[in-house]
Amino acid sequence: MSAGQAAGEAAGAAAPSALPRVLSALFYGTCSFLIVLVNKALLSAYSFPSPMFLGIGQMTATILILYVSKLNKIVHFPDFDKSIPVKLFPLPLIYVGNHISGLSSTSKLSLPMFTVLRKFTIPLTLLLEIIILGKRYPLSIIVSVFAIILGAFIAAGSDLSFNLEGYTFVLLNDIFTAANGVYTKQKINPKELGKYGVLFYNACFMVVPTVIISFSTGDFQQATHFQHWTNFLFVFQFLLSCLLGFLLMYSTVLCSHYNSALTTTVVGAIKNISIAYIGMLIGGDYIFSVLNFIGLNICMAGGLRYSFLTLRGNSKPTQPGDEENTLPESKS
């Protein structure tokens, strides 16, 4: 009798945990989808010359939103002390590299090709989770991941608009994104900085160096003299990008908190494939080929297979003393 009650209570306790996992993944996918479209409009349609300046705007929005929220006791994170830089390292460096390489790569490639090359973030995340976090994944998950990569290879092999600079930026972005996801998962312990502390201090530590680099390279001057600052629609989209930059960073941390860094990366991949399909219809910069289309479909199949396995619970990585087992207790 008591054993049955205990089993029922355990099942009831486990059931709610699925909802935040799914909702956090959907929130991240939506934010990531929207910011790519807005950034593409700013950097390509308006030919805004400064992806670094746009990154500064997104960091500034993050600092202001979180600082005001802390003052009004909406969120909580520790006050600054000398231990915080040590706790965060190397996240700030990875963070700014991810920002700049991501914004630069968006403007250099067609939207569908950009989404294909971003798939290489997935095996990098898988590898880093194994090395840094000590996680182990079942064969079914590894097969799903490499199905996505196979599709990316097939699709990229037929690219008729090869751009070496664009490919370099997007592959750097893959490395930074993988490292950012894995180290974020490691650093968001609620007993230390927590989700909001990681976001706030990351932005604080990197906004000033990024402004200095922007000034020294002439990037800042190009941005301030841009001709469309009097265009209401452009300014609205710039501010929207800054807000979405904060929401994307927050949703990434939230998704990594409730899921794994690998799941966050695969959600991003599924979102990118969806953008590729939209780009075929309305983007105007997609060059159709049979191989590219087949590759995209293989990517989507692998991503959906991974999602199915995750929802069934087969993807939960094994790790000695895995922090996932303590998340519901440590979250207040």
UniProtKB/TrEMBL annotation:
- Keyword Transmembrane helix assigned to the entry: answer is yes
User: Which Gene Ontology cellular-component terms appear in the entry?
Assistant: membrane
Q: Where primarily located?
A: membrane
- What is the membrane topology listed in the Swiss-Prot or TrEMBL record? Multi-pass membrane protein
A Pfam family it matches: TPT
Where are the membrane-spanning stretches?
25-43, 50-69, 111-132, 139-158, 164-184, 196-217, 229-249, 261-280, 286-306
The record's subcellular locations are: Membrane
The organism sits in which domain of life?
Answer: Eukaryota
Q: List the keywords (alphabetical).
A: Membrane, Transmembrane, Transmembrane helix
Q: Where in the numbering of this chain does the Sugar phosphate transporter domain appear?
A: 27-307
The name of this protein is Sugar phosphate transporter domain-containing protein
Native species: Mycteria americana
